[in-house]
Amino acid sequence: MATLDINNVVKQFGKVEVIxxxxxxxxxxxxxxxxGPSGCGKSTMLRMIAGLEELTAGEIKIxxxxxxxxxxxxxxxxxxxxxxxxxxxxxxxGNLGFALRHAGMPKAEVTQRVDAAAxxxxxxxxxxxxxxxxxxxxxxxxAIGRAIVREPEVFLFDEPLSNLDAALxxxxxxxxLKLHQRLKSTMIYVTHDQVEAMTLADRIxxxxxxCVEQIGTPLELYRNPANKFVAGFIGSPAMNFIDADVIxxxxxxxxxxxxxxxxxxxxxxxxxxxxxxxxxxxxQIQANGKWSGTVEVYEHLxxxxxxxxxxxxxxTVVARADADSHxxxxxxxxxxxxxxxxxMFAEDGKAIPKT
Amino acid sequence: xxxxxxxxxxxxxxxxxYSLLALFPLVLIAINSFKSKKGIFRxxxxxxxxxxxxxxxxxxVLANGDFPLYFGNSLIVTLISLVFILLLGAMAAHALTExxxxxxxxxxxxxxxxxxxxxxxxxxxxxxxxxKLGLTNTLTALVLVYTAxxxxxxxxxxxxxxxxxxxxxxxxxxxxxxxxxxxxxxxVLPLIRPVIATVxxxxxxxxxxxxxxxxxxxxxxxxxxxxxxxxQFIGQYTVNWSAVLAALSVAIMPVLVxxxxxxxxxxxxxxxxxxxx
Lengths: 355, 277
What we know:
By secondary structure, chain A is of the alpha+beta class. Chain A has 9 helices and 20 strands. By secondary structure, chain B is mainly α. Chain B has a single domain, classed as MetI-like fold, CATH 1.10.3720.10.
């Protein structure tokens, strides 16, 4: 168990800079999730922490000790890969104990640690099988077990659930959460799936184009996104954005004043256009609603339903509707939005602070 | 397609026809090796039954005390060359695919250029070189030449295959603390076993069958290989055909055994299932 500090790290592949001057720190025992679209640098960052990629500049400390020049095995980390990366010619026991035996640990202790890890993950009956004889979920558990036996200071997960089918993914997500509660070790988890990020994380780091966009707890990011990108990335279905003109401190959409732009910021920055962010769950469909539009798509998920509503100015919003409701395509609906939960973004994407 | 009996029959008849074509000369060698010279010329297609049968050919091969030596030479040269081709080829391919370094692409191209240029074109230069090195009439000369001859195609096949091996498994071994050499020997080699078998079969047969380089580089009595040794039955005026055919039949055996071993590996490798199923 240890803290992890990343200070001013830069990574270049040839002339292309893929990570720009990034600093962040992970607390002892924290489960930190790196999330972002593909190509945003989150996996590269993880590989630099693991020691599989060299840093171009900056430093990485684990437990206060500088590790960025050490080989991976000496950093006190263990990593779980997307493709499981099990040794196909070794059975489960062989896979679990390989690193320990290689490090010259006495046989009895290897057996003891391997059995303990197998116990935690329920791998007991599978110990003599080869990876090719295991299902995807079982392989991923072996891969996690291989990390556990090393008793690392920091666990690194590189999209570990991406190769599993949807049902198994939900199941393994819960298992990883339980594992974290049980081991209480520092973990870094990379994913492009914001649902995984929201459910697993103590804190989330949102990456985009090699920069950290925002760091915070899942609810902080959900409630107070720092910019339009984070707002659109966190939450499912994604936040709706509606372009509006600002006249006299009011955001005007379809010639109606729909929200007042905080006056202090208006004076400071002279906004002429803003983007109004509304989460689907903050839209209330009401017969006397101020907004109106026609139903384009009606998605019913059983427990809830989503309406895609085409507004008069051809912008579309997604609204959460009552599960018992019925709508026809082309029908006109009226709705209100919860004013206190509106988000407002300036033209450069930055969130306009609420007053 | 797969369940259509007509297409299945068509495919099988083509395969059977091809097998017959390929096997015909081998069978001819085998049956005629059990006949006397007269028998061979009187009735070349007949089976060696009744008065046609004669084991004279095998007797003269076995009576020739040098044959075990020729066999040993061929085996030594083939096996040692094979080990070098497989080891160096796989290592070079691993380096080319795994590491980013300057000139990587050019080096790869240089290493596989030999596929296009037959090594026999360089025979004169090679002979001069080995004379200067004092390596004529040694098995070392043959091993060196055959290793050079086999490497380009081996590197080409290994490179193509290693590109498809998951990088994560090597990274995983790195995190487990293995050195780059141990990653190669303990993780990469087991993964590419079926390809090793393929390359081994491809490289082995031309080396075993080669007559050119033994004749030029090491024709001495002590370093003759089987193919060269057989030549002694082919005289200027008379040819002991029974002995030639008997010697050829015996010479096929080791290659056949090695082929069976490697092809078993090949099939096992394919059916074992690698990283993902």
